[in-house]
Amino acid sequence: MSVTATALQSVAYAVAGAVASYFAFVALLTVPFVQNQVIYLNNVTLTWFKDVNYPEQWGFLHNQVTPFHLRTGDGETLHAWHILPPGLWQQHAEELIQEPAGLTPDITARKSFELLRDDPDALLVLYFHGAAGTLGSGHRPPSYKAIYGMEPNRIHTVAIDYRGFGTSTGSPSEQGLKTDALTLARWAMNEAKIPPERIVLFGQSLGTAVAVYMANHYAKLPEPVHFSGLVLVAPFADVELLTATYRVAGTIPLLEPVAKFPKLLAYLNRFIRDKWPTKDRLAEFIRLHEEASSGSSGSPRPGYWVSILHGEDDYDIPWAHSEQLFWHAVNATEPAGISFEELEKEKPESRVDMGAGGWAVERRTARGLVKEQILKNGLHDRIMGYPAVSLAIYGAFHHGREPR
């Protein structure tokens, strides 16, 4: 056998081995445990050698962040951070500095909790982070700072590590994360006594699915609960579409090669346990608000505010997912519906071009607003700390009323 033939044979074996390994990996994705690791990546902490009970390591002021625990109804313990806006911290610095540092056994005994509960002007963001990591990983700490950027005296943030993430107990699942989100919302409204009209739901990546679920869940109750707004950063439409487009670490395609064979992809999607149908839940949420009345009381629903932000250079979750979400939301505002193609033709009429900063388009009705903002740069995580997020949070709190 010639040297050339031997080389070609070696290449053929290598290609065959790579293909076989890939399809073995695809087969493993039908196993629920493997699915969990791929969807949630909860065992990748990204905060090695750092104690998440001492947030000063991420540049926060001493006791600006209070770590505490929440207990879920099914017996799990969630690790949480309550983040004070810096202007408020400065006003009460002497008392805050004297308090013990680290994990508190009773959040209600802390000055920070008092400042949240007893201030009628306090605003609260419930923060749902993406897959992998902990409360202190990557660009999350800078994003907390962006959240209170427009109002450094009023906007508090409470973030949780879902079950199985960081030091929280348990193992993640769609049902489990739903329970975690509801636990946080009940704590905010029942213990911290913050009315929903002073609460904004913020989600990034995986967290957008959690935030949309919770907004829709509360809107569907016999006596609906309506939050001030939804801010969704780098969202995905649903897990089935995500499997066809997602790239791990922005480089390794998950099922993109399989997506070239729609029937095979559809077959594999039958094995997905956690569907996270965000586009359908968001559409249902919008339809509920577009109705004239609410629940058994018959009183009008308050206006809704949904802001969707995505980076055009997001290699993890392509911004086409935000296009899908925006379309499903707008379609829900139209009694006769609107096709994706029809909406694309309409967009230029209301599109605001911001040059190198990207562009934005919105659909406003008598009942509320949905806004899509695509930034030229931002990647998947860096965008969270951008001023666009600060403005979106501000708008979600102050739509339909004058800011104080």
From TrEMBL:
Transmembrane segments: 12-34
Keyword Transferase in annotation: no
Stated name of the protein: Monoacylglycerol lipase ABHD12-like protein
InterPro entries with a match to the protein in the record: AB_hydrolase_1, AB_hydrolase_fold
Matches recorded under PANTHER family: ALPHA/BETA HYDROLASE DOMAIN-CONTAINING PROTEIN (PTHR12277), PROTEIN ABHD13 (PTHR12277:SF81)
Keywords, in A-Z order: Membrane, Transmembrane, Transmembrane helix
Domain of life assignment: Eukaryota
Source organism (scientific name): Hapsidospora chrysogenum (strain ATCC 11550 / CBS 779.69 / DSM 880 / IAM 14645 / JCM 23072 / IMI 49137) (Acremonium chrysogenum)
Gene3D superfamilies given in the database record: alpha/beta hydrolase
Domain AB hydrolase-1: 125-239
Keyword Coiled coil: no
